[in-house]
What does this fold into?
Amino acid sequence: MRPTRSPLLKLFTAAALTLPCSLAWPTNVVLDAYADHAGRLNGWLLLPEVVLKHCEIHVPAKTSAMRTAYSSWLTNNAQLISEARAAVLESAQVLAPMLNMTVEQAREWQRDSTTLIVEEVKFWRKGRMEVYGTCSNYEKMLGEHVGEPTQRAMRESLNEIERLKQGRR
It folds into this structure.
């Protein structure tokens, strides 16, 4: 039985759309799957940082506590963060020639696109009180962000990328 996807996992799936493989190249299943998993990892990596940046503006009184929580997230998840960053960088290397970009341009494009999705989901669609609620609960959001279901999903994406690279599906 599959567990229900958390809102954060839905965000990671939405982040996968920042890699437009399915739109740009017809039915390349392997590339689509690769982009989906790399996008999910990129969303997982960027969500805490992007939300923190906005929350420091909207709820400055909580800046110290939010920075402490973010620092703890970075420390406690260092291994998974390192693996996810490597996979996302590698995806930029795969995508760069297809997008007629340098690897650095592709990586910047991935980061900017995913950041826009996080901002839209967490801030732009919400009123002032909802933004305040998101920021007031930053530590709780980060706790869900590191929960077992989310970490398992990130590990599954890393494993699937490896299988795709080895030609096993």
